[in-house]
Every structure is written in structure tokens, then in C-alpha cells.
Amino acid sequence: MKSQLTLKKALLTFIFVLGSVFVFAQGTGKIAGTVTDKKTGETLIGVSVRIAGTTKGVGTDVDGKYVLPGLTPGKHVIEISYVSYATKKITDVEVKAGAVTTLNVVMEEASSQTLNQVVITGSYKQESVNALYARQKNSAVISDGVSSESIKKSPDRNTSDVLKRVSGATIQDNKFVVIRGLSDRYNNATLDGASLPSTEPNRKAFSFDIVPSNLVDNLMVSKTATPDLPADFTGGSIQIITKDIPDNNFVSFGIGAGYNTASTFKDFNTGVRNATDYLGFDNGDKALPANFPSRNKIISGNLTNEQGISAMKSLSSDWKIYNNTALPTQNYQFTLGRVKNLKDSGNKLGALFSLTYRNAQNIQQDVIRDYKDFDYHDDIYKFSTSVGALANFAYSYGKSKITFKNIYNRNYDDLFLSRSGFNIDRNRDIRFYAFDLMQKSLFKSTLEGTHPLGENNSKINWSVSYANIVNDQPDQKKISYQRNPSDAGTADYVFVGSTGTVSKENSRLFSKLNEDNFSGGLNYTLPVKMFSQTSTFKAGLSSIYRNRTFDARFIGFKANNSSPNADEINRRPLSTIYGRDAINSGAYFLEDISDDADSYLAHSFTNAGYAMLDNKIGKESRLVWGVRVEQFNVVLDSKVPSPRTSVDDNYVDILPSVNYTYSLTPKINLRASYYRTLARPEFRELSSAAIYDYELLALQQGNPNLKEAKIDNADIRFEFYPQAGQIISASAFYKKFHNAIESFNADGGSSRIISFINSDNVNVYGVEFEFRKTLDFISETDFFKRTTFYTNLSFIKSNVETLNTGLNLIDTKRPMVGQAPYIINAGLQHSFLGDKLSFNALYNRVGRKLNVASGALFPSVWEAPRNVVDLQLALKVIKNRGELKFNAGDILNNRITQYYDNNRNKKYDTANGDETISSFKPGSNYGLSFSYTF
What we know:
This protein is mainly beta. Helices cover 9% and strands 55% of the residues. It is globular, with a radius of gyration of 31 Å.
């Protein structure tokens, strides 16, 4: 009995304490933010932030951040003080129970006469405006950024959505970025300070939709270079920093569904489907068996008939076409954030976790391919699953912080293509089928530390990172049938399988790419006195090592024409032409047509060092200048080495840059810059591996003789900030490319091969205009104050001369490959009902651009412009913790078209001789999603 009473007392005590903690947690709030220098935008370490008139306060950490917890609801006065800076008092800072109030502060250095006298007093609203102004104006380079505060107010779901709001940036297919009209190969991306590897085997592309927007601390697109940025860009450098220590504990989830007008609820043809496909993993049935005969054994003829038959039977034999109904797109997101304040020490421990899932089933109906000898129509069915995970950990102690950030993304794309049409050269009706699975994964882990040194606000930052990229193509199956039109009316007027010979066009491809990346960096920042002002010296070292293995085998079943049933088997439908009975009867021989160069090993090593100064000269001028040195070595060779395919190149580049800013008034900046950057060939662009692309109807092959491109850049810009968050600007830029890397039709042998070339004389000129402003200048009504119009216009002219290539090219003078002549981005935003309901409309148009330069026989491939309109409506519900979003994407559903401009009238005009490489309507997308945060 006594023990029961004791147990009851303990239980009641526990419930009381738990309830008290709960009530206390719900009854208090926090103030959090970042403290920066007004002139440079640098964060300040060790700034005192406290409630005025009390001893309750904290110091900013090594990132200039602070959190004041456990505050009673109501309005507070915050006092911010720092050595050699004017003290600030911020009034009317309202704290709400269970919420975090964001207060970012800009500090101004005090003059020697007023060092101990000045206290600047202002309201919360004024300081919020000041902080936003400072962030806009204080960038060392010509750049555009989005902060976590702006993302909170937007309806964006992931980083890809956020990038669409950045001036001058256009996102295509959620991963290909166009900045200033330049193709994606001239951009780079970093995630948490380390290079973000490409998930595409043949080009530089980054899946920006893998990071949920609520985990982005800030995103910046730099259009000019400083010495502390990696040098391999000339369009833009995209820097994404994810959060580490959340301001408070939270759990959020999201669910969404989408409808595509060209796909959803339509007949959906596919190869064999397994339950694991919905999880992003193949069940292993398509993989090449471990005991499959080697290439050397097959081509040397050392296989017996029985061994050949056994090997063919070990491969997947399901060639059936399964018909289903395309389901709506579905996506799910779960995020968990936790922060622990260690009261005794003032240290903090934080963690963020996120899981994302997406499945889509899309159809490209009636893709037209009408050029040269081809008159084809394709139907393409793509089943896609994407899963992602993020886990970030951080520990903040004293003025130091250590973070451990991890991200994983996996894409499963299973494609089926059905083609019909006529081949003029062969004089045959054609039926072609392709089953193609690609599994891509990216894992990246970064450990980073930032620590102060001494009492002068100097700090050291270090990082080590590992990334792994896998592209697994376990069994790309292709087969062609043909029929002779002259046999019409006879028994021979049937489609017959083209199995008499094996080529890369009708073989089975088994390929796998594995790449490991190791990188590390060390940066040192030191405030120094120059020109009677505090300037910043920065220096650093970094290295990145990449190691890639690529294996490819082309396996084929060649018809045995002496087989007694050869004619009957060749007339079989797709589902039985490679049936077990046909293989057992000896109707096929096993062949391996892989070339020596189709598999390769490659590695590269990049070492860099830099030194730079950020000088404040007087009250109006700022000069950020310095030099970066990069040493780059790339080695690539086929698995069967030969001098023709070997690459071993070394480069040492000295890369100066200077960025000058003059503040004409508190609202106007004038900027000018010069910098030198690079563009290095990717491994795939150097490899002699020849892979057949059945959609392009061409081989893709690299060029071992490619050299790196060097680019001299110059920019000038006028910026006017009418109000916080608004801008009117005009820019002009010039880029001189030495050895620009471009794709072209290498068709010297009469067949079309898409390869790469260095163009030695390339010039790009451009102007940019940006306008972002509320419409209150029309009327002072609340409606126009809450409406923002923004637009970014880019007009670019590029000239390329290819006179010294040694090739007899059709176009020796032309625009640059991938360079659009103009980009139009425009949008309208409006918020209703006290920011509970928001509306966003976006318009984009990219001008006609050159995708592949001409060869000696095949002309240049152009991509026609198209208009893209997106709409979004977002409603905050359930006390602002939930959000309901409606998205409408690509509403106009213009055709995506690539073509030969044979009549050279600079427009797509088939009636007057232009030929269609590819043309289809992708369909409009409509989606509804709901998210909620606990």
C-alpha cells in the first residue's frame, strides 16, 4: 500500500513537472537573428545582444547568429553593443508565445570622436528594413540571393522553386540552370561549401529539387567572381547553405498530387514492373549476371554453342509490352528539427532530418522526328521515382561551431519508347522499340568547423567532404523491325526483326558509372585597418579529387540464318522473337560488340589557393580584389589503353579578380568588375566511348584532345533600391572565351556523331535589366502595396569563328552553342488576408538557341523558343501552421522543338524547308499539396 502511494506521488509529481514545462514552453518565445557589419555585410562574432535594463543576454556565435530564449510575450527593447561599433537599441520587438521573432541587426562602426557616446535607437520595423537593405547592397559581387526569411514568406516547396525567383536564372526540368543565357555547362553549384557533383552522366546538371525549401538557410547566385569562389563558372555560381541548428523544435509533413494533361489517366505502356520500382530500386532481374562470359571470351570464339545458349538464357527474357493507366504524380515530405540549449554552458546542439518521395508517370505522345532519311513518330513513356534524405547535425560551443551535413538522393527512371515511320535511305517501314532503365544516386557528406582566433574578430573555417555518384543502366534493350513497301499485297508484307547483324542501335547495353569525390578546404579571415577603415583579409586553400570508373558492354543476339526456323522466328512479335524456345533451337549466336574505348577509368585532382582583400575606401567606396591560383590534372584512359584514347593534361591558372562598388547615395550603387574564370571538360567529354542515343538517332562520343576554356569577364551595373526588398538595375557584360567547349556534329564519316570541339575565338556581349517593385506608385491603396511586379530581361549577342579547326564545317561563323540571344522572366505577386493567401504568376521565354553546332554534312541543331506560364496560389490555414497550395505549371503547353534551320530564316518553318529533329507537347501540370508544421 505504501509503495502504491509512493508510486502515485511520483507519478503526480512527474505529470505536474511535465505540465509545467509544457506550459512554460508554450508561454514563452524567442528572438533570433544575425548581426552584420553595415558596410561589408560580414558577420560579427561576440556581439552582446541583451534585453535592455536586464542581465539577460547572449553573444553572437562564429556565424554572427544569436538566440534569446525564454522571453515573456509582449514588446521588448533589445540592446546590441560591440567594441568600436555604435551601440543600438531596438524598440517594439514583439515576442509571441511559442514563436520565434526574427531580428537581424546591422552595426555601424563609430568614429573616433563618438566612440563612447553614440547610441542609435530605432524600431523593430526600421531595423528589419535596414537589415534587408544592407544584405541587398553589401554583396561583394554582382549577385542575387534569397534568405530563409524570404523563403518563409514564399510558397516555394524546394530549392528548384526558390531558384525560379532569382534574377536571371531559369530552371529547366528542375535541374538544368540557364544564367545570363549561358548553358548549364558554364555554371557551378556548391552545397554547404563543397562542390555539388553532377548527377547526369553526359553533362553538368544538379537536381535542385532534392533540398526542401524550409531547410535552406540562404541561397546565392554570384554572377561575378571573387578569389574565394571556385573558378569553373562564367554564367553563375549557385551557393546553397542548408540550416543546421533550428531556432526551435518542429515536425512538418507535406503531401501532394499532380495531374499532367498529356499523361495522367492515359494508357501507359511499359516494360515489366516490380513493386520495388516504386521505392526507387530495381529488384536485380535486369542486371548482367556475375558469371556472364567476358568480352574477350565471346569475341575470341572460345564459347561452345551450349555455353552461348546458356549465357543468352541467363539474361532477362521479358520483352512484353504491359499496358496500364498513368497515375497522378504523388509526392511526400517529412521534416524534423530539434535544438537543445545546454543551460550550464550556453552551448547548443541541433539536428535536422528530412525525407522526400516523388513518383511520376509521364508520356511524350507523338514525338515528331522528320529529317534527312527519317520520318518517325515516337511515343515515350517514363516511370520515375525519386527518394531523398537529409540529416544535418551541429554543435555550437562558445564562439565556435562544428556541423556535419549529409544528403542522399536516388532517381529511378524507367523508359519505354515505341517508334513507327519510314526510313527513306533503306526504303523500309520501321518499327523500333527501346526499354531503358537508369538508376542514379548521389550521396554527399560534409564536416565543417568555424572557430574564432584571438579577440580581433578573425576566424578560421575548415571543411572535409565526401561524395559518391552512381549511374546504373542494367539492361537497355533495343530492337528494330522493318517492312518492304514493295511487298504490299503479298505474304511477305510483314514486319521482320532486324537481327541479321548486331550494332549499337539494336543491342543490349549494360553500363555502370561510379565516381568518388574527396574534397577539403581551409579559409582564414582577418580584419585589418587600412585607409582608416576596417578592411578584411581572407586567404585559403582547397583540394578536390575525383575518381571515376565507367563500364559498358554491348551484348547482342545475332540471327543464325542457317537455322531451319530462322524465317519464322524473325517474323515473330516483340514478346516472343527472343523466346527461350528460339534460343534453345540455336536460332541466335551470342555477340559482344563493345569497343576497346567504351569503358574507361578517370581521375582528376584540383588544388587551389587564394588571397584577397575587402577594402573600404572612405564612406562610399569598396574594393574587393585578389588572385586565385588553380592547378588541375586530369588523367583518363580506356580499360584497354591506347595512345588515341589517353588523356593526361596539367594546367596551372592564375585568376585575378577585382570588384569595385561605389555608393552614390544610400539607395544607389555603381559596380564594376573584371575577373578570369575557367570551364573544364567533363570526363564524358574527354572519353572516346561511343554510346548510341536512340532518341537523337546518333552516337555520342567525347574528344580526348579537348582543352580547358579560359574566360575573361567584365561587368558594369547600376543598382537603385527604392525600398527594402525592391530593386531597379541595369547591367552590361562582356565575355571573351579562349577554347570554348562546344558540342558539334562530327560527321566526317557520313554518319552523325555528336562530339565536342574547342572554339578559339568566341565573344559574348550582353545587357541585363531588372525591376522588382511594389505597385504603390500607381495608387497608395493597400491592394497595390501588397502587389509586387518583377521582371528580368537579358539580351545577349555571341559570335563564334571556327576557322582554325582543320574541319570543313558548314557554319564557320555562328552564335555560341547553348547561348540564348534573350531571356525574359516576369512575375506578379500579391498577398491577401494579412499574408494568409498569396498569389504568384511567373512568365519565362528563352530565345532561339543553338544546341549542336554544324558538321561537314549535318547542319546546326536549333531549339525554338517557347512561352512558359506558371501560377501558384497558397493559403495558410490552422493558425498559420498549415499551408494549402495549388500549382499550375506550363499552362500554355507550347511545343518543345529542335530543328534544322535549312532556310536560315531564324524561325521554325517546316513549310519552307526546315527539318524537325524533335517536336512534342509535354503537357500542362496541375498540382495540389498540403503541408503542416507542429
